[in-house]
Amino acid sequence: MSETPLSAHNLKIHELEAFRAVMLRGTATEAAVLLHTSQPVVSKLIARFQRHIGIKLFELRKSRLVPTPEARVLFHTIERTYAGLEHVAHTIAELRGGHSGRLVVGSLPSFGMGPLADIAARFLKDEPGIRISVETVNSSLIRHSVVSGKADLGVALKSIDTAGVNAEPLVEVNTVCVMDRTHALAGKRSINVRDLEGVPMILPSRDSASHTAIAQMFADEGITPHLSAETSYAMTMCLLAMQGAGAALVSPFAAMHLRRSGLVIKRFEPSLPIELMLLTALDSSPSRISSMFIERLKAAMPALRQQWG
């Protein structure tokens, strides 16, 4: 086979398409259907492609084309390229002002599984051509994703370093106390920190900012919390509380959708505020789709502030 040096401009797009189609469909006949051409044309393109690149890509076994290991490696590389081209197509559609495109939103897990899911669902009903990817990670990773361009926008805790991003206040709410329906405190209108003395508590992980704030509040009152469990996620804290493992102090965003499943949610005193920021890229304006979504996001905040602030 030829050993002619190859460069990107030497590659023939029709040969690449024929190779990809055979890999996807398994036979030249099925590949021809995919490409809206004939089986002989596909076979000729495959033969020409193999000669052109100097690599054997298929072996004929019982009238079937069986990919070689080299073919599989090449196919994975081509698929990554096609995925990139799909992203280019979506970007072009967005820039042309069509109602299509992709939006990547980074969010705290509690907000992403609570209000953000509701807002995104309503947005998608109105804009069915848009795809939304919600990445639920911690605040530092959200900032990094926005800085690097992996996320179009992010919702993170105010306490993080906001270097390299535009950060504006989004919403402030208060921590709530959650428990199961049979809990001794379930009948109270609101819960005071003193009510939790001696009560089994489900706390955030020790390395989290919320654990530090809760521990300091108990210390200020001279109370040693009765620890029953620790976990990294507020949603897990709520589920443990709902199963009777103890009471928990969490973001209302993590708890709000579990009320209908039996979780009891109570206002808590003293106030432990949770402040969220909206993060966007520092060196560029939001895209049209991002701006549309940010508008929806901000419009939903007054109701959340009124209910949980």
Automatic annotation (TrEMBL):
InterPro entries per the UniProt record, alphabetical: LysR_HTH_N, LysR_subst-bd, WH-like_DNA-bd_sf, WH_DNA-bd_sf
Pfam families: HTH_1, LysR_substrate
Keywords, sorted A to Z: DNA-binding, Transcription, Transcription regulation
HTH lysR-type domain sequence ranges: 11-68
Keyword DNA-binding assigned: yes
SUPFAM superfamilies, per database record: Periplasmic binding protein-like II, Winged helix' DNA-binding domain
Any one of the GO BP annotations: positive regulation of gene expression
One Gene Ontology MF term: sequence-specific DNA binding
Cited PROSITE patterns: HTH_LYSR
Annotated family: Belongs to the LysR transcriptional regulatory family.
Protein name in UniProt: LysR-family transcriptional regulator
Source organism (scientific name): plant metagenome
Taxonomic lineage of the native organism: unclassified sequences, metagenomes, organismal metagenomes
